[in-house]
Amino acid sequence: MHDTIDIEMSKKPSLKLPNCFYRVSTKALILNEQRDKFLVCHEEAGFWELPGGGLEWGTTPQVDLAREIKEEMNIEVAKVASKPSYFLTGRQTLNPDIHIVNVVFECEVVDINFTPTYECTEVSFIDKSFIDKMEVSDGVLKLSEVFSPDNHPNKL
């Protein structure tokens, strides 16, 4: 039998889920012009995270990512890859008892004219050399370990 975790939902009884389940998030891989660094956003919780969020029921990752990026950073998405670039498992940064899977899709944006929001206060292009200097989410750490510009030679 699996251990369970309590997920408290506002004004509803808490929900017990076996800890063998993953929360699915779609994340954007937005590359700089040289395609050797990827974009992260600084969240109000104090850590750096990949743009994106939880996959909403009844939508596609491509539609969901475009919506999340518009909400979080007020940036228009031009293209989202039809297939994911990376599939990363880990733990939620703020609640390590929750297991997550980040399905990372390469995205192209119209421009990088970022507008700060309560969800994303700052953006930066980084590579593995920046990780030790920043407080990053588990997803950013894991992506930095497997990211290679050689896997992304061409635009979408």
Please explain how this structure is put together:
This protein has 156 residues and is α+β, with helices and mostly antiparallel strands. The protein has a single domain (4-8, 18-149), classed as Nucleoside Triphosphate Pyrophosphohydrolase, CATH 3.90.79.10. The protein has two helices and ten strands, in the order E-E-E-E-E-E-H-E-E-E-E-H. Strands 3, 6, 7, 8 and 9 form a five-stranded mixed sheet that branches.
Can you tag this structure with a few keywords?
156 residues; alpha+beta; 3-stranded antiparallel β-sheet; globular; 10 strands; 5-stranded mixed β-sheet; 14% helix; 33% strand; Nucleoside Triphosphate Pyrophosphohydrolase
Q: What layout of secondary structure does this protein have?
A:
Elements lengths: L3 E4 L7 E4 L4 E8 L7 E5 L5 E2 L2 E3 L6 H13 L3 E4 L5 E6 L7 E11 L12 E5 L11 H9 L10
Parallel strand pairs: 3-9
Antiparallel strand pairs: 1-2, 3-6, 4-5, 4-10, 7-9, 8-9
In a nutshell, what does this entry contain?
The protein is an alpha+beta fold. It contains two helices and ten strands, in the order ββββββαββββα. It is 14% helix and 33% strand.
Number of helical segments with 4 or more residues: 2
- CATH topology value: Nucleoside Triphosphate Pyrophosphohydrolase
C-alpha geometry = globular
Helicity level:
10-25%
Could you tell me how far the N terminus lies from the C terminus, measured between alpha carbons in angstroms?
44 Å
Q: Could you give the count of β-strands?
A: 10
CATH class: Alpha Beta
Number of domains: 1
Content-based structural category: alpha+beta
- Low-confidence sequence ranges: none
Radius of gyration: 16 Å
Mean pLDDT: 87
Percent strand: 25-35%
Instruction: Indicate the CATH architecture.
Output: Alpha-Beta Complex
H and E order: EEEEEEHEEEEH
